[in-house]
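Discussion board: Methods & Data

I've been asked by a reviewer to show the raw model output for two of the constructs in my manuscript, not just the figures. I'm not sure how much to include, so I'm pasting the format here to get opinions. Each protein appears as its amino acid sequence followed by a line of discrete structure tokens. Is this the kind of thing reviewers expect to see in a supplement, or should I convert it first? Here is construct A:
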Amino acid sequence: MPATKLRLDKDALFETLGYEPHPGQLEVHRSTAPRRVLACGVRWGKTRAAAMEALAAALEPRDRTMGWVVAPTYDLADKVFRELVVLAAEHLRHRIISMKESERRLVLRNLGGGVSEIRGKSADNPVSLLGEGLDFVIIDEAARMKPAIWESHLTQRLLDKNGWALVISTPRGKGWFYDLFRRGQSDDPAYASWNHPSWTNPHLNRAMIDAERGRLPERVFAQEYGGQFTEGAGQVLRNVRECATGEWKEPVEGEAYYAGLDLAKVEDYTVLCILNSKREVVFVDRFHRLDWGLQVTRIRAATDRYNNARMLVDSTGAGEPIYESLEREGCNADPYPFTAKSKAALIDNLSLMVEKRQLTLPRADLWPEGIDELESFQYSVSDSGNVKSGAPSGAHDDCVIALALAALCIGPEDFGCPLLLL
């Protein structure tokens, strides 16, 4: 029988794969809208539903099928792609033509004898998203992705094959993902959208979720577990733009200065941030891939220029010998080793000072990478249920940590003197 006459029985496929979708997942699978948008709390089952949709599309009888799984970073794209690989290896080994996890590429023989290929892609390299037409695309953690990726890269890949998209995420404020969700709630037949809290997954323990409600900030719980589009819910630092009215300043003789130093870890940056006594950021140096000796020389030169600024140094792990080198060089430095408790205190202090507008930051056009890091710094809930603060996956928070160390070094205005929490 010709491939065009065959049709995939999705329910039968799911049964073969040992997958019994819960009612919310079933709504997504039954929808035929070309653009499906799924906004849900953590652990609802978005990843598994997306993997099943990708496999169903790949097994559809066609001469050739091409689909992508796209996320803000490769680590995030791997969530869906690894699920695909496991399912294929366990249940569809006889249909695997090639499976290269390192290349994030899975090639299957579909039910019509044609070839279907699924690739994992990262949105942090838009150039890799150029080129071929797609039959389908699945976008994971869409709320963390820049709108230009969807608007200028992915939608264009779907045009020539009339492809479909499944866009999934836990909400993060009200950006382009929210706009797509709202469109799915309208009478546009090309779009369908669903919004579910975590506890509508019948396989989750409701009592454990209720326990998290008492442990988390209300706005974080509403976003992460309630699946609500709450503006600024995961944002740790508020009023960043309101504080960003300053400019770089040269040192003033006799004035006291306070610095924070975050040292590079592998692909990160070393960042030195210096405040004056008015709590204005007057100098920032950001660099990476320099020999440690050169880094020490560069840091000492900057702190010397700002009247031997008192400095807090992240002395965790590899940072300890660098701190000791700085101390030997005569820098006015104190160590600040990171633990879960000390980092929380550091970020809480910075959050309070920014919230009260006690810091003056350089304008966004002068310090774009710093303002971007501060605004992106967020609360998140890990797969194990732990709440942490930090940069989104694949991004940096070195400027945030350096500023936080400098802010702790001088302390909030309420104290009227440098804060000594060492």
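Construct B, same format:
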Amino acid sequence: MNLAGIGLVLNRIESHLKSLVDEERFSLFDAISRFAEEEVAPHLLQWEREKRLVPDSLIEQLGELGIFGLPIPEEDGGQGGQMIDLVLAGLALSYWSPSVAITPGAAVSLGINPLLRFGNDSQKSEHLAELAAGKRMFAFGLSEPGRGSDAANPEVVAEKTDQGYVLRGEKCWSTNAAWASHVVVHALTDPTGRNGHRSTCFIVPRDRDGVSYQEMDGKTVWPLSSTGSIAFDSVEVSEDEILGDVNGGFRVMVTTLNGGRLFVAAIALGSLAFALDKTRQYVQEREQFGGAIGRFQRVQDVVLEMDLALERNLSWLIQLVNRYDEGSLDREQAAKVKIDCSRVASTLLQDAMEVCGGVACLDEFGLARHAADLFVTRVGEGSNRALMSQISRSLLPDIADQLQ
């Protein structure tokens, strides 16, 4: 079978989005979609088979396109947009490759957003213009070898000195580590402080003495995305490099993750949208038992369920993103939409692969890529299981102190 001949019909996500966003924002989505189809899709197989990270040339193109500067004010060199613009970019890019989408996605939602929300004027003046152009990139230093969901208690320690602080420890699972100019490091500064008030965030140049980076080998998901381990061996940082308040680092992290979870939900829906289009095209062309397999009710059910899930969750996501931009989105809602989008998309991708059969296992068909990459949406920006435990406390307030 000639897989190249199995094209894609008109994106269903386009028809759903037209009623959810205004004309200007739909045009933004459309422009990024065309860019991804022309500049990303034709090269994906080669990049993946050669085990390459996202090429520097593509990062430069994304910078020229303005994606890194979407939420940055125009006076600071950005596009003057909001989270909705970044989410639309994520939907457009992840349709073809979640690995590619998370590169600007993490750079903005996890790197630029904490600076926008908690940075002082001097820090913004120093960094924003270069970040907007994609010439500088912040990585998010939260996860550690011994800390994942227990993010309020980092093992990386910042010891106070006469000159500032000294950082010791290691961060891991840091997206964009290979390209990072700086790392936003979440470190313990007050071991005796109350929970959620014992850590501080620092903006640390990756080329500073004592900072070392190593790409994490053996990763089988998001293969084009850089995921690194960053170690801090007695790294000196100044008080000017504190992001936000002293012992207010957990608030910086938690607030940042709200936006990150919305972007992860968008990545999941981008994968689901690709699977829907690919599957409905395939079942109309694949003939068995005297006709196209799309004539069978059980096949139709899978296609319909994907379309229902895409329309329902996309509407929910856009609603919550608008609330985020208005400043009225709470943590539970951001967590819920991330949980549901990632789980529904993961389940339906498996159903789509079953419908398409053995051809779905081939990398050039595309479904296997998305099925594997969807795993990250279930554990990234907070494991679904850990987030479900947190949400349960508000649902069962009378026994919240008994919940494990």
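Answer (T.O., handling editor elsewhere):
This is acceptable in a supplement if you add a one-line summary per construct. For B, something like: The chain has three domains: 3-132, 138-250, 256-402.
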